[in-house]
Amino acid sequence: MMKHTLAGVLLTATLHAQAADKLTLVLDWYINPDHAPILVAQQIGAFQQEGLEVKIVPPSDPALPPRLVAAKQADLAITYQPQVHFFADEGLPLVRVGTLVHSPLNTVISLDKNIKTPADLQGKKVGYSVSGIEQATLATMAQHAHINPASIKLINVNFQLTSALLAGQVDAVIGGYRNIEALELQLQGKDPVVLNVEDYGVPAYDELVIVAHRDRAHDVKIKKFLTALKKGGDYLRAHPQATWQTFAAEHPELNTELNKQAWIKTLPLFATDPAALDRPRYETYEQFLFKNNLIKKITPSEQYAVELH
Which of 65, 92, 162, 254 falls 20 to 30 Å from 212 in CA-CA distance? Predict the structure, then answer.
């Protein structure tokens, strides 16, 4: 009798192992604290509980992940909400299925104590890295402050935001993240002024989102992934220090003071319900991009964003 019972248990375990759905997730960049809910879902076995075997892949090139999904070479990719609108404008078959970071991370940062609001940027030099969207964001902040956007001198610092600020090449930078560059400057003994873009006329948006191919957006395994991701986020919020310690032990090369502080700083910015979609927010941001000539047309949000509850 015991042998039969054991055989039954082994058979069930084997069937479970065979039944695990394989899912490939390509990150937006190398592993970092922005991915904490995903990493914690993995730590606590949430993916396995949902019958998933998730392969997490950092990209060789940050521009590739969504295109791999569009080509059906990966199931999911992490990207940015503004990019989702660009992909829709290009006609790529991608849809947002989940949210990772539900707040903008972008900021204007300065070390000049005379710069307290965007109005104080008049006649100043502002460093940036990404053309198009950063100019539109800064111009909107300037208009909100009733100054002429042309009065701000933009300088491309080629992704050297903090070093350009520290060297005094520029008076402020746009594109630094509130949970990374702002902390980095503090750790160097500075006291940066940090202006959140959404406080000055720029529509709020989801910084990091998860996209799937339009044909596969309603696959059961994607719903399972989002369920596991919610468990990861819930556990992370309940155990911030313990999950950091596990992460630091698993990734000793990332065990830095900056990453430790970013792990905690990003906690309130993660989506509490990754599947939930704020459709009006997407439509408002789409209008912002259109008004600034960054997209050629308005695409109905149903075509590029779905809610999988």
Answer: 254
In three-state secondary structure terms, 258 is: helix
What DSSP line would sit under 35-49, residue for residue? GHHHHHHHHTTHHHH
Q: What CATH number is given to the structural domain containing 157?
A: 3.40.190.10
Does 214 lie in the same domain as 186? no
The pTM assigned to this predicted structure is 0.92
* Neighbour order of strands in the sheet with 208-213: 52-57, 21-26, 76-80, 208-213, 94-101
pLDDT tens digits for range 227-263:
999 999 999 999 999 999 999 999 999 999 999 999 9
273 found inside a domain: yes
Contact 236, 243 (CB under 8 A): yes
Closest CA to 30 of 2, 57, 66: 57
Residue 155 shares a structural domain with residue 275? no
- In the chain, the amino acid numbered 47 is F
Distances (CA, A) of 2 to 5, 6, 273: 5, 6, 44
